[in-house]
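tool_call: predict_structure(chain=1)
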Amino acid sequence: MGAADAVPGVSGGTVALIVGVYERLLVAIRAVAGAVVFGLVGRWARGRERLAEVDWRMLIPLVIGIGAAYPVAMITVAGTVSAGHPWRVPVMALLFGLVLASIRVPWRRLRRRTPAHLLVLAVAAAVGFALTGLPPAELTAPPLPLVFAGAAVGICAMILPGVSGAFLLQAMGLYQAVGTALRELDLALLATFAAGAALGLGSFAKVLTWLLARAHDWTMAALTGLLIGALRALWPWIDSERALQAPPLDAAVLAPAALALLGAGAVWALTQLGERSDARRTTSSR
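tool_result:
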């Protein structure tokens, strides 16, 4: 999830959905955010009750993995997906196959597939397609209030399958600034970014948890559509303004195609692992 969140075009929420921890992650984030709020107002008993709801065996290794991978990916891998980079086509082909295969995950969770659900899917796909077509911007010295607001918006996308938080940070002109702050240890900017991310994460997790509990199929239809629309961001052949281009009609397309199949195979393996983990957890809880 950490590596995916750092790469424009990929969402950590997609990875959580693939391996089957998405709903559990949202519940844990909501509980931790609620505990923090109760702690700030001095209601310690209620805060402890909320912390007791957290699946710590899932959350702790997940947070460690994200925290370890995100800064490393921001400093190293993230630059390879920019237009014109010699590694862009193979890297994006691999990610394209990964996200393309992940579409079946929320689609399979739809209990009903009525024309209305398909309409929601189509609208969400159009929104995802439009968001991933936003042109990149760059701010060399963004003001801290903008960093705070951008982090709150970007972190929402990071837990929303199909919409890349890194992509939105690029559109807001904050992506390079955050990467530079990580390399140069700009603590003021990093602390502001972390505070905005914490606020956005806690608030948006509550909204998503409520939607999944009360409008599960509608939410899954929307998530499926977002994944479909977001494929635009992962198309290997684009120019510097993110305009889509046709693939080459020669042998040069074979290696990207093979990498896309490899990405799809990785998703299949991860979904199998997630389903087996869910089955073991269900059996042990009985």
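agent: The radius of gyration is 19 Å. Proceeding to next step.
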